[in-house]
Predict the structure of Aminotransferase class III-fold pyridoxal phosphate-dependent enzyme.
Amino acid sequence: MAMYDNHRPTAELQALDAAHHLHPFTDGDALNRKGARIITRAKGVWLTDSDGHQILDGMAGLWCVNVGYGREELARVASEQMLQLPFYNTFFQTSHPPAIALAAKLAQLAPGDLDHVFFNGSGSDGNDTNIRMVRRYWQALGQPERSVIISRWNGYHGSTMGAASLGGMKGMHEQGGLPIPGIAHIDQPDWWSEGGEMSPEEFGLARARLLADKIEEIGPSKVAAFIAEPIQGAGGVIIPPETYWPEIQRICDAYGILLIADEVITGFGRTGNWFGSQTLGIRPDIMTTAKGLTSGYVPMGASIVSRKVAEVINGSDEFAHGYTYSGHPVAAAVALENLRILEEEHIITRVREVTGPYLKAAWEQLTEHPLVGEARITGMMGSIALTPHKASRAKFAAKAGTVGLICRERCFANNLVMRHVGDRMIISPPLVITEEEISLLMTRARLALDQTLDIVRAEGLLVAA
Ligand SMILES: *Cc1c(COP(=O)(O)O)cnc(C)c1O
């Protein structure tokens, strides 16, 4: 078995990495001066690095390792499927059992009439599929001018040209000549940062109504769809006020536009139900899924599509779109086994009824810490806003992300992975995390916050903007 040079010294691996490896979403020079942290193995919620540290993974990799690391069943089905049928395509009127079984299983799990599946290789190309599909849908219905898709500033939908255009990350747009034509953005429902004097309820309604304003501005006959994450993930785990989604749903229904829920993070149990749409009471026409679909063991994405949309796509000429690896048999076999584990081990029920409430109680107590403003969590995705002054929900005078980065480094130093988005800290642990591991996560998070406060004070950063 190739263990890929686990035995090499860390410095040697770091030098090779610096010499040849271009990292995603990374300042390469800064990384190479410091040297990458090298993860060599993992089990359950625990990572091991090349120096032998045991690190609690509070992010489930990148929000994806829902069943935890080291599940032998997933390795076994991948191996068996590779020997039986490692690849065949699903173009040109062919299919194969793993893709068929997975499409049927997803149709059974998905809410409402979401009962057809288009397979992708990732979340990004899933959203590119969705752009193509909703435009094709309206074209087939004789309304080709209905092509604009509305999304949100600070939303994240992936990194391809299409997906990054749907996303509202201005830094990404600036580097790529984005967005592509036919995409429009509205402001996000982030009450802590942008709510001003409004109550969360008023603010949720106000931000939802921006969708109606934008549709009127563009012209209702030109708008194809609205896309959003039920809970924003990469934008900082922003849980919208309760008034937000019902109003968004009402507006989509009133204008007859399609609603795409980007469930790449919220799918497969993260919010305590199979899908975030169920937790937040949304009725999407299309759901983008990826990440937790295979618990990240192999790459795969799936657009889960309503019967209404599927009938129009099937009922018109060939939909000229697809990927070599759409429905890849090894990925589909792993996904099916992953779904079996989630279901038979009642992992999602445990998140909803036991570990989720346990984590929530501990997480919300973080507001007692001097640095923490709001602390919010749904299921196994949560965030805290760091602030120099809680009552006014103030931002730091220092450049956004300065304090967040200090806190992330203190987490790493205490063997905990917690990410920062600006000055918000976020967690999204594997769904199999136990109560004991949650307690440990909280102890380390508090320690990291205490140390961050000491550093912030010492460096004179505890100053409101
Ligand atoms: C990660 C993510 C994507 C992109 O998925 P990739 O597999 O990285 O292409 C899309 N949408 C959301 C909400 C995500 O979190």
In short: The radius of gyration is 22 Å. Residues 38-70+346-458 form a domain with the Aspartate Aminotransferase, domain 1 fold (CATH 3.90.1150.10). Residues 435-458 form the longest helix (24 residues). Residues 122-124, 156-158, 229, 233-234, 262, 264-265, 290 surround pyridoxal-5'-phosphate (CB under 6 Å).
